[in-house]
């Protein structure tokens, strides 16, 4: 790997790392993170051991599930794929989609992962970045005579061989939204190139809302929007190791996150094993060697990369949110059972509505996958119109599913005494007595399912299921713009004219 001149002060370089065998186990993945020298800050302090930190570890467990399931025979069809680069069996999260069937399996895999974790499992962004950059760099090379695609394929082969987690990074802080990147008072509001050298580039800035950043071996960077010539310094794509000098991660807060720090916490967590996370990732004069640079000022292709990535990621939500929704629906049904009202007609109707809404999201994810078409590079791109329709539905339907779950659970979900009160010698018997629902169901079981619903609708998991459903993969307005662009309204007018016998050549 190329290195910058050692005499340049304040500029950092990447380091090499020994290869890891294809298809890591869950345990090997966790140990591989221990070897990283990550610079992670939370609540104003450096976290020396992110792997075992009680707030961070549940999110790591979610990622680890992608390794665990890939080792099980019953899930291998969904969780693994054959590399188009090496012909080896690889984790599907590292795969370049080769046909519409791959796109469908991707969505099914994401639903499975959501079912197993009831949280954000953090690998979708990297997978979607792989596929967007793969086809975009191919088009760039064909039209410009560059070697970005060749570089990227070599990089991806390394990722597949080592079975790495890669954090796809697109969103910039953006500063004043009314100003373009080059017009910002502070140029670092969008990540940008500050220096181009014979052996690489130097970048400054940050990426916001970075899902799973702390649990990733690598970061794969993309521009955040279409660029004009005056913004060419911001048209940049590259890969960088997560522990490279100059990379600083500031871990984001989540609702109820400090419950994980409470001694003996279990019931109150709702989901004590799995979770997700986001981080602000700062790039403080980071050097990127040429072999890891996949776009360098080719501003005309920034919009293409953004559009393709956004399409893939909007497809993803038709899988991951549905799997989490499956768990929430199940929890709501259990709450109804434990409350003694499973046969009430309005309860049945609400559960049916939850299922209907959830399967609608899944149908959108499957539809845009099944209608996928090959790009010039050979990998498959989803139907962009249907992918944006999928995500537009995701901005709304999980909120209604969550509302119905809260309705079925009842107010006790948010007024219930703590686990410490339940375990208390002084007042525990009162909690046991007065929080009981159906007599045959232990009070603790009722408390557990209510806390799970709270976790998914209001607590840490709500980050991924509610707010991320709204803003992840672009805002609702971003999808509406794409729907307008892809909807082919003029063709629809012609259909109406033909049926109505309106002649287009009339004056």
Describe this structure in words.
With 507 residues, this protein is of the alpha+beta class. It has 2 domains: 26-302, Butyryl-CoA Dehydrogenase, subunit A, domain 2 (Beta Barrel); 305-495, Butyryl-CoA Dehydrogenase, subunit A, domain 3 (Up-down Bundle). It is 46% helix and 13% strand. The strands form 4 sheets. Strands 2-1-10-11-7-6 form a 6-stranded mixed beta sheet, with no helix packed on it. Strands 5-8-9-12 form a 4-stranded mixed beta sheet. The protein starts with 25 loop residues before the first helix and ends in a 7-residue tail after the last helix.
Provide the β-strand percentage band: 5-15%
CATH topology name of the largest domain, in short, is: Butyryl-CoA Dehydrogenase, subunit A, domain 2
Overall shape: globular
- Count of the domains: 2
Largest sheet: 6 strands, mixed
**Mean pLDDT rating:** 95
In short:
The protein is an alpha+beta fold and 507 residues long. It has two domains: 26-302, Butyryl-CoA Dehydrogenase, subunit A, domain 2 (Beta Barrel); 305-495, Butyryl-CoA Dehydrogenase, subunit A, domain 3. The chain is 46% helix and 13% strand.
Keywords:
about 500 residues, six-stranded mixed sheet, alpha+beta, globular, Butyryl-CoA Dehydrogenase, subunit A, domain 3, 2 domains, Butyryl-CoA Dehydrogenase, subunit A, domain 2
